[in-house]
Amino acid sequence: MDKRYRLSQRRQFEQVRRLGRSWAHPLLVLLVVENGLSHSRFGFLVSKRLGSAVVRNRVKRWLREATRARLAYVSPGWDVVLIAREPAAEAGFWRIGEALDVLLRRAALLSEQTREADSTP
C-alpha cells in the first residue's frame, strides 16, 4: 500500500482513537474519523497478545492486503485504524477480508458505486 494511504505517526493514531467512532467484529475493531483530505488513510494495530512476532506480522500483512484490495471502494476523506483481536491470528486471510467488508459496510465507508454493485442482482 502506498505511503500516502498509511497512518504512521503516533499522534495520528491517538487522534483517531480520541475523536473517532468505532465498530466491532469478533476479529477486528474499526475506528474512523474524518481527515479532510482527498484520500483515506489506514493504520493497523496488532497487539503482542496475538502471539509471536511472526504471527503479528502475518496478521498485519493480511490486514494491509485486505485493505489494499478494497482501497478503490472506500470513500475518500477518512482516517481508519484497524485493530486486530486475538481470534484474527487463527482466522486466515479470507475471514479477515470478510470481517473488514462487514465493518466498512456498517461504518458506511464504502462508496456509492460499491453499494450499487452489491445491490444489483
Could you characterize what this model shows?
Strands 1-2-4-3 form a 4-stranded mixed β-sheet, with helices on both faces. The chain has helices at 10-19, 53-70, 88-91, 93-106, 112-119, and strands at residues 21-24, 28-34, 41-46, 78-84. The model has no long low-confidence stretch (mean pLDDT 89). The protein contains 5 helices and 4 strands; from the N terminus they run αβββαβααα. The termini are far apart. Strand 1 and strand 2 (28-34) form a beta hairpin. It has one domain (3-119): 2-Layer Sandwich (Ribosomal Protein S5, domain 2).
In short:
Helix content is 45%, strand content 20%.
Write a concise keyword list for the protein shown above.
121 residues; alpha+beta; Ribosomal Protein S5, domain 2; 4 strands; 20% strand
